[in-house]
Write a structure and sequence with these properties.
Helix 10 packs parallel to helix 12. The protein is α+β, with helices and mostly antiparallel strands. It has 14 helices and nine strands.
Length: 363
């Protein structure tokens, strides 16, 4: 075969699979967060909600409706009751959003339910993508990104071209995608429609890009497709791994978060940047929707830093303690020590002086 293609599916991992090995230091916060996700997945931990998911017929991703924590148990109970029956798709989608909202309102039971109830779609008859002959003759690389929806019948509908609109072969490959069939996504056993991002990468056989070429290609994609959330998420994660000191990195994070506010990696890394600049309220607002769905210590660390900056000592201590507990034993010692030192800093700063009445609460 003279060529190969790589099909990267679903925005749960839009920029590629997370690394599953222990990282070498120094490494950026964003890269460590990605690697941790892979390590936890390898250890069999449930989905953390770090990667985003868009369901139904929404044109653009949006966060779940905001719930007051006091409302969450009732809303969650009603959603589960609906799912135990024989609801139509609209009712299933409404219940899914309610469960997600209850999770975002920090109801742990709702977060656990969400992780176990959702199953991603799987191809039953994969798309027969073809390397454009004009590009193959030149030995050129190509990247195409399509946005579509996989319905409850497993058909791909409403496809649009996100990247590669001017490439030869784009229409042929779009048609191939529309002819593909999937086993649909389900929530609590009920089929649901889901928006899907299809990334198709064509690479000449026998050629492998080095890390610098991969990064150059990521920059080119973002320049050529300034409205593509896929391109900006890819660039931000490449920079997090390869060149976090690059002046473009903060811009890439900001742009990725703007285009993909429901992507947990982008939201958490944007929140981390907010924390570094003392913007604690925006930081907590960005990371909060993912907090109760995540077992990732870097998500919890980010939330703790924002809470501490807002003088929410009790919450900050709880999140940082959990983050310390979740760090695997094989994780680099300097990072485990850094997390522990930060916890000690919070404990010291939040302690109530002996000569101050306990009624005043933590500072």
């Amino acid at each position: 075969m003279r060529w190969s293609w790589l099909f990267l599916s679903l925005l749960l991992g839009i920029t590629g699979c997370a690394h599953s090995s222990v990282p070498a230091l120094p490494a950026s916060h964003g890269h460590l967060m990605s690697v941790m996700e892979g390590v936890q997945s390898k250890r069999g931990l449930p989905a953390t909600g770090l990667w985003d998911l868009v369901v139904g017929d929404e044109v653009a991703p949006s966060p779940p409706p905001r719930l007051d924590p006091a409302q969450a148990p009732v809303v969650f109970e009603e959603a589960v009751k609906t799912l135990r029956g024989t609801p139509g798709e609209d009712a299933v989608l409404s219940a899914l959003r309610d469960v997600s909202a209850a999770c975002a309102a920090e109801l742990a039971e709702a977060c656990a339910f969400w992780s176990g109830a959702f199953t991603a779609p799987e191809p039953s008859s994969p798309a027969a993508f073809r390397y454009p002959e004009a590009l193959l003759q030149k030995g050129a690389f190509a990247f195409m990104v399509f946005q579509g929806r996989i319905g409850t019948d497993g058909r791909v509908r409403d496809c649009t071209v996100v990247e590669g609109a001017r490439l030869p072969g784009i229409e042929e490959n779009l048609a191939a995608l529309q002819a593909a069939r999937y086993r649909p996504a389900t929530f609590s056993g009920h089929p649901v429609s889901i928006q899907y991002t299809f990334n198709v990468r064509f690479v000449p056989n026998g050629i492998t890009l080095n890390r610098h070429q991969e990064l150059d290609w990521a920059r080119l994609r973002a320049r050529q497709n300034p409205g593509s959330r896929s391109a900006w998420l890819n660039l931000a994660m490449k920079l997090a791994k390869e060149a976090p000191e690059d002046p473009l990195y903060p811009q890439a994070i900001t742009r990725a978060f703007f285009l993909a506010p429901t992507n947990g990696w982008a939201a958490t890394e944007a929140a981390w940047q907010f924390v570094q600049s003392g913007q604690y309220a925006p930081a907590l607002g960005a990371v909060r929707p993912f907090l109760r769905r995540s077992h990732n210590p870097y998500v919890l660390e980010t939330a703790a830093a924002a809470q501490f900056g807002l003088k929410q000592c009790t919450a900050a201590l709880a999140e940082q303690r959990k983050a310390v507990e979740l760090l695997p034993a094989e994780w680099p010692a300097p990072e485990r020590e850094r997390f522990q030192r930060k916890l000690q800093d919070y404990e010291s700063a939040c302690a109530v002086p002996k000569d101050v009445s306990a009624a005043t609460g933590p500072r």
